Amino acid sequence: MATIKEIAKLTNVSSSTVSRVLNHDETISVQTETRLRILETAKKLGYKTIYERRIEQKRKNIGKDELTVSILLCHSVQEELSDPYFFSIRQGIEEELAKLNINTTTFRLYEGMGNQLPNDLDGLIIVGRINDQTLKTVSNHIDNVVYINHSPDSDRYDAVVIDFEKATKGALQQFINFGYKNIGYIGGTEREHMTNQSVVMEDKRLTTFIKTMKENNKFNSDSIFIGEYTMAEGYNLMKSALQLPSVPEAFFIASDPMAIGALRALQEVNLLVPEDIAIIGFDDIEIAKFASTPLTTVKVHTKEMGRLGVKLLLDRLNGRQIPLTITVPTELIIRQSCGTNP
User: Fold this and answer.
1) Domain named HTH lacI-type: which ranges (predicted)?
2) Pairwise pLDDT comparison (180 vs 2), residue with the higher score
């Protein structure tokens, strides 16, 4: 089989460039002509990436022509439409599976997952949270399970997560370093959906906010506003916050759509961001940098979380026995909305 070095020599580019192009690394800057030349050369030589080779090996082992993987979404359609966070994770999963020509079916937990999951799945990728009872249902059906954005049992299951506590602390420390004393919180409710019911779950952003504010002697329970993770709720909750006798100088807002709604509420009463009230959001969705005041926000690599989930699953199908948890780093993206040292 052809090697990366052979392709690099024929296309007159470095081996690292060939490797990144063939593995669909979106961070690499390369001309379209060069990219096409690499892909065409690899195809002519019959080159296959490590993941393609693993899939072929798995197919031989199980005696099937194709792999079948299901995606289980633990959030409602409305939640996905209101907040691009989970939608972006799903995109990353689906794009990676499509790239590898793996058959995919998608289910939602609250629609009655237990009766829908096929018995002959090669693997399952779960986005979000499920309870112990449902977890047992899943484990009875399928051996190879990967969780994204939640890790219920790191001794049994692979998982891709972010460190919500570290990310929240970093955002709050930015405010503290700037000298803000009265800091508020606007956030939503995290739920675990099941058939005909939903259960409210702990939100690490909120619990970390409370803990950090107490540690810095800045906690005020009146400055915490909780609703749903929607833009409209961000607007409504900021309206409520503005009725406080002492309105916070800064707000940590647990999602960018909520932060954009909050910006609108401030504009309506002619309050300036960050001059009157500073804001830090969470997610770094595309619209964050184009908001009326560009949002300082915690960047979460959601699509990469989805892709990594697929890679963990394929690695497990290839024979790995030890469960792994990958913590994807976040980054505080500084823009205009968080202000400067007052």
Assistant:
1) 2-58
2) 180
